[in-house]
Amino acid sequence: MRWGLIGASNIAATQMIDAIRASGGEIASVLSGDSRRGQDFAARHGIAASTTELNSLLDGVDAVYISTTNEKHFPQAMAAISAGKHVLCEKPLAMNVADAVTMVAAARQAGLVFGTNHHLRNAGSHLAIRDAIRAGRIGRVQSVRVFHAVQLPAHLQGWRVDNPAAGGGVIPDIVVHDADTVRFHLDENPAEVVAMTADAGLGAGVEDNVMSIWSMPSGAQVMAHESFTHGFAGTGIEIHGTEGSIFARNVMTGRPVGEVTLVTQTGTEAIPFEDHNLYHRSVRLFTEAAQGRGRPAADGEDGVRSLAVALAVAEAARTGRRIPVDYGGI
Fold first, then answer.
1. Which Pfam family name is an example for this entry (predicted)?
2. Predicted pLDDT at 253
3. Nearest alpha carbon to residue 188 among 74, 32, 325
4. Model-level pTM?
5. Which domains does the chain have, with CATH numbers?
């Protein structure tokens, strides 16, 4: 499969180029708004061509990977879909739910595969957690605690910490991942949220810390903490049920690391998991789906739903009210 990279991004450079090639794909071209940056990126990564024109990139590829700033995802995805290309898009899919629904529906109508690059559900740790929950090892889930408070590295700051028009802030950057992960484990969608943001001094016009509580249709509650300013907190997820609890530490990351522990009445045991590359699995499943086999790890509807939760968290924090999550009719 021939790919075009829409965005000469850090995630493309560090993860996705390797993942695409590991799946047997060929990267034909990269798009950058800065011609010199695009040329340098292409040369550095052995990509044959670079361009500043989207139509030029779309000519001669089968699929695109979109990793530009968030406000560009919608028009770029719609152009790719109109050109008959499969789309793997970074989260969040768009700046609002209506646009996200539109792009996903357009791909479906065109018979194209649309995937959201939610990497965490591809981790061996999270697959093992999901298997344990489905096997009934903790009984009925009562609550979840997600802690995803990190120090955003300097080379990733830029628009993420000072540009609300581009979709900056910790909510669109991290809450979407946690929303997808909770949905993946619980097989249900948050119904309502309450939230508060804080400014620890890193963000300029955007939030750099947020805490929220989500109610689930089953009655379970989710408590989530996301941050750009916590250098030593570590990350993880705890899932507590009527028959046991799962404690997963250092698993909210793109690397196949961490520890998963199950605690029940009979004692404590480590849950083993595979240490495969998360992004390799994501691209492999997307590629297979484009070839008519299976589905992406996270499809377009997953991307819509994670965006909807993040936007509800933002609205709850802004208004101080309890906000129902609007999934745009999907």
1. GFO_IDH_MocA_C3
2. 95
3. 325
4. 0.96
5. 2-118+281-298 (3.40.50.720), 120-278+307-324 (3.30.360.10)
